[in-house]
Design goal:
Blueprint (H helix, E strand, L loop, with lengths): L8 H23 L10 E3 L9 E3 L7 H22 L12 H8 L2 H5 L8
Antiparallel strand pairs: 1-2
Helix pairs in contact: 1-2
């Protein structure tokens, strides 16, 4: 039987915020031009990495606002990651169990709804 952990609320909240920030960053990257700097259209030669060629249109680059938005999200991601990794909760988890506990934290929000709640 797998051990479950009683994560403190602030640690769960930080993980939830980190998951949201990463989703926001992914969505932002998907809508931004492929190149940060303006770039002329180009085509990957056939046989280069893949058997088919691929053409890329002109890229206007990222605006200053887009660059600031990416930078803010990345900074928030770093801050949340640091808060999670350095949280005092990990001091109470035995070294060999930390990897499993960290993995379970990523799914703790589903357990908050009552799924799979067991005593450690």
């Amino acid at each position: 039987m797998a051990t479950t952990y009683d994560y403190p609320g602030d640690l769960i909240a930080a993980q939830q915020a980190l998951t949201q920030v990463r989703a926001d960053l992914t969505a932002l990257y998907e809508r931004l031009p492929y190149s940060v700097e303006p770039m002329e259209a180009w085509q990957r030669p056939e046989g280069y990495w893949l058997a088919t060629s691929r053409a890329y249109p002109d890229s206007p680059g990222w605006s200053e606002q887009e660059r600031r938005e990416v930078a803010a999200l990345r900074e928030r991601e770093r801050d949340l990651t640091a808060a999670i990794v350095t949280h005092a909760f990990w001091n109470d988890v035995a070294g060999p169990e930390r990897l499993d506990a960290r993995s379970q934290l990523k799914h703790a929000l589903a357990r908050e709804d009552g799924e799979g709640q067991e005593a450690a």
